Structure formats: structure tokens, C-alpha cells
Protein 1
Amino acid sequence: MVRKIAGVNGAHHPEVIRIAAIFDKIATDMTAHLKEEEEVFFPALKRADSARIAGITPDDKDRETIRASLLRLHREHEEIGDAIHEMRHLSKEYAIPGDVCNTFMLTYQKLKEFEDDLHKHVHLENNILFPKASQL
């Protein structure tokens, strides 16, 4: 929807063109980020935690994977957070201009919801999961 409003409203609201580009980058980056979590980080974390519970030292490869993933994932959280903040700034805190259609209004509402969900995701990982994972 963000691309649609950029195409329709970009002439009168050029900020939505930049917002669409930022959102496209976030979507691309998040796809890779979530794939890293699901296919690399979480499996290594589960194996290391299972070893710890069994009283065995986690495998060095899993420990290195966890360490490297923690650094990369935390950096990616910062980059995505910066992009979200730029979108919020460009949209003037998702303020809906008076001359736009329902699709524009809905898009801004959904972008705000997306930002809120993303903040929860990052908070849970950065403040709960990652510190526990780093102890392995």
C-alpha cells in the first residue's frame, strides 16, 4: 500500500516516495533478518541450551554462531530502528494530511502499527532473549 500511495500522492506529498523506499528496504532487510534468526541463530541457541540443561558444554561452533549472530542481529535492530525513526519523522508522526484518500490514511495507520510491533520485537530480543543467549 505504501508504494500505491507514493504513486498516487507523491506529487503532493513527496515524503511518501521516500517512506516507500525506506519501507521496501526494511521489508527486504527483515526478511533476511528473520531467516537468520529462524535458520541459524535459534537452532544454535536451542542446541546450546539443551547441552547446558544436560550438563554438557555447548559445542564451540554453536557458541560462535550465537556470538556472531548476536552481534549481527543487534546491529540490524539498530539499522531497522533508524529507518523506522526516519519514516516517523518524514510522516510527521504518521499525521494524516487533510487532502488524502482512505488508502493513505489506512497505510499510515498500518505503518504506525508496524512500528509498534517492531518495537516490541526488538525489546523482547534485545532486553530478554539476547542477554540470556549471551550467557550460553
Protein 2
Amino acid sequence: MKVIGINASPRKKANTQTLLEALLEGAEENGAEIRLVNLRELDINGCLGCEGCKKHLGKCVQKDDLTTLLQEMTTYDAIVLGTPVYWYHVTAQFKMLVDRLYCFLEFGENPETGEPTINSAFPGGKSMLLLISRGDIEPPTLFPQFYDHMNEWLNLIPMSLGAGKSEIFHQYGTGIDRKSAINDPELLKKAKAAGAVLLSP
């Protein structure tokens, strides 16, 4: 069984990466083959909206590191996507990754009923975990509605990809301290435990 963790933080060894590493450690100790990918180290571009992928569903026409990574993601049993929160949403790197997942999806409608349909070339049934690290406490005291749109959008990712099970793991109240996770043994323990059950039914 294989688990991939994708870190969309532009910072080295900050909270998102620390927690991803703990999650992957928990998975590895339970027999999984693991891999960590830092998007900041790759040559990646945003989606061009060219619709070229619809000629060969699941194949992005761009020639960058993200094209290769997207194909590799289909071979893993569990996928962990990690991002800090910038400006009340995910990082630019995370958004680029998610936008490029569009290459797997084809939207249309049922000719008989007119209802919208989604055809997916992404293998369904995978386990997905979204790891979110943010500066504000929970519940937020300042403009709590600013996070509603992000949480709703995040839930669309595993749903659109046909995940078998999904979870969101939150770290709250980091402020600007990029070392708060590594100094929180209880949080690291929870992250490791979440990784340990990634591949359980």
C-alpha cells in the first residue's frame, strides 16, 4: 500500500511539512510505502484552461513537473494534501495543483434528464486527507465567515475525485510561528495517529 503526501507550503520545514511528515510516519509504521513531495521544489504552472485534456481525459498537455506528479498520484492508495492558510484560503501552490486536477474531469449532462454529469478519469475509492494549518484560533473571533468558503471548497476535492473516504485535519492558532507544530507533541501524536489509519477501511 502506498501513501503520498504533497506539501503546498512555500516555507521549508514549517508547520505544514512537520505535520505531513508525522502523518506519513504513522502510515509507514503501519506498513505503507510513503513519499513526500514539496511543491516549492518543483517547476509547476497553473491550468491554462485550454481544454486540451478533454481530447485525452486525464492527460494534461503541459510539460512541467506537475504533469508527471498528477499521473503518479493515480497510483497511490492514499493521498494527503497539505497547505497553510494565506489570505483566508489555500496557498497559490495548492490552488495550482487542484486546478490542474481538472484534467481528470469532464463535465456534461444526461441527454435524457438534462441533469449535470461528471465523468472522471481519476481512479476512485482512494483515501484522502486534507491537512490545513492556519494562524487563527478555532472558532475564529474575527470575521468567522471568512473561512466558510474555504471549508466548503476543500470538501469538493475528495468528492470530485471519488474518494472512498476523506478527512480534514486542522491545526489552529499558529499565528506566525512556523515552529508551533514541532513544539506541540500532542498535535504531532494526533497527526501520526491520523496517518496510521489512512489505509484502514
Protein 3
Amino acid sequence: MTGSAVGVSFRPGELEVRPDGSGNLLGSRCGDCGAHFFPVREACSGCLSSNLETVPFSTEGVLYTFSIVRQSTPAFEVPYALGYVDFPEGVRIMGQISGIELDEIKIGMPVVLSLEPFGEDDEGNTLTGYRFVPAEAHSD
């Protein structure tokens, strides 16, 4: 996993950031039927159980689909790729795709979670968020 600046999660409760800069996306696992969800939930949509625990997800997945965003808010430089990534736990999570030229992105390519700085909070702490990068770029 890419360890950028260690900081405070941009999305508390959805992203665990460890002191060494590594981390995981967090979701829920149903203790009754085993289903996984992102983000964290209080009830299972499959069996309606409230027996859910917060669990870290894998850091590797496969790009299910993506779109090139050419118009966005001023906070994001365009164009950028936004995609859905399938994880081994059976969840599909949306995030930006980076570390690759836009015309080289392919559905089905392996990607890994990359923790990256996304600005600062009101106290000056680095906010850490996530993107997905190609697995082969991560192994270099």
C-alpha cells in the first residue's frame, strides 16, 4: 500500500489509517449470514440482523467499471477516472483511479488501495483519503 502522509482519515469510520501510513477501508460483516457492506452499517440488508461488526477490507481488488470525469467541482482537477472496485469480501467500492494514464485504464485490471493526503482539517492535521492504483504500478 502506498504510504503517503500519515494523518486523520478524510472519512472517519470508513478508513483506518495506522501510524506507519498503511491502512484499510472499513466496513461491516454480518455475524449471522456473513455478508459484507461498505460503508459501515447498523443492520444487514440481507437478513436484517443487527449482529454486525466493523472489519477491515482487503487492500487489493479488481476494477469492475469506470468513467472519465470531465466536469467536477473546483476541488477536483479534471479529467480524472472514477471507478468501482470489486473486493474479495464481496463488496464493490467507488473511488478515484490514479497512477495510470486515463487511456490505459482497463476493466478487470487488478488495483490496490493507495492512501493519499487530501488537504488539512481545521487544526492543521493532514487529511488522508484513498484512491485505487494499478497493482503493477504499486509493485515497482
Protein 4
Amino acid sequence: MSWSSGKDSTMALDVIRRDEEIDVVALLVIMNAAVDRVAMHAVRRALVETQADRLGLSLNVIEIPSPCTNEVYELRMSEAIDSALADGIELFVFGDLFLEDVRSYREEKLAGTGISPLFPLWGQPTNTLAQSMIDSGVKAVVTCVDPSHISASFAGRFFDANLLADLPASVDPCGERGEFHTFVFDGPGFSSPIDIEVGEVVERDGFAFCDLRPRFG
């Protein structure tokens, strides 16, 4: 399962796990090695490790430098594909929703490798999908915002009905065009919620990031 730590990945995982013919064995996450956080979502490694534990899955991490060229990214992904093939993996699941260029890129890179891509959420209307995520029990916090699309004040907010109501009409309800990214701390398949602390919001490299920390004890 290609894993971003966010709501789309969580919903796609829930859908694919209902297929009794498919056995999901691991989460594959891309980590910014310079800061030890999920790329773009800016989620700490410890939180992603806890997600995997709550979901009963192993975690496979691809570390990339920052900044990262496309050549380096594709090399790391090629290594991950080779490793997956060696482990008998036949399918990669993605949480993409409607961006044709993203889907085509994934299909192109997996063509001929022996691993096929799956897109269980593809083509679903994102306004109804966003509400379905909330109705299914997905609990998430907005960790990254692109201020060129929505106010930085959305960073740190919970992904709920109030947030959907406050989004500008021009913004996709699932943030599929990169308007915002999330971290899921509870939802379908989680054995128990992850206890988190919502920290400060900082603006860096043209984005607003909300720091989340695991709460222990």
C-alpha cells in the first residue's frame, strides 16, 4: 500500500482490505531523510510507525534527500519495486482520485515490472468521498497547506464537516490538487486511536506545516 499517512491512503486501504482475494502486507512510505518526516505531509516517522502498528502492517520506508531530483526519486522507487518483487508482492495500491497524469505516471513506471497498480478510489466524486471518509470514522488533522489555494489557518484543523463547509468552492474537498494534506490518527482498521499533540504552525518553502507529536504516557 502506497502510504502518505493521510485520509486518501486510509480510505483506499480500507476499501482494498474488503477484497478477500487481496492480502495487504505492508505500507510503503516516502520519507524526507533530511528531517525524518513523510514527504509533503511533514509527519514524524514515529507517528507513521504507530499507524502501521495500529493497522497491523509492516512499514517499508523509502528515504529520499531534500531537495530530491526526479532521477534520484525514480532510482529509490525502482529499488523498492525490486525489493517488493523479491518478497512476492504482485500489487501496489494507490489512493489517487482523479489526476490522470499521476495515474499514468504510476502505470508507466510499473509496466513490465511484474507488479500491477490498483486505484480503489479512482473516479469517485470527491465531495461525496470526503463526507464518506468522515462517516466511516476517519479522524485526521491537516498537516500541510498550500497558502496559494487556502488560508494557512487551515493547518492544524481537524478534517471534519466544519472544515469541508469552510473550504472555498475552488478547492477540492479531498485536496487532490495539493491544496492540503492530512495525518490520520484513527479510522477504519485502526486497533485504537493514536494519541497526538497538535503543535505549532510554521510557514516554510511556500507551505504552512502543522507539527504533530505523539503523546506518550
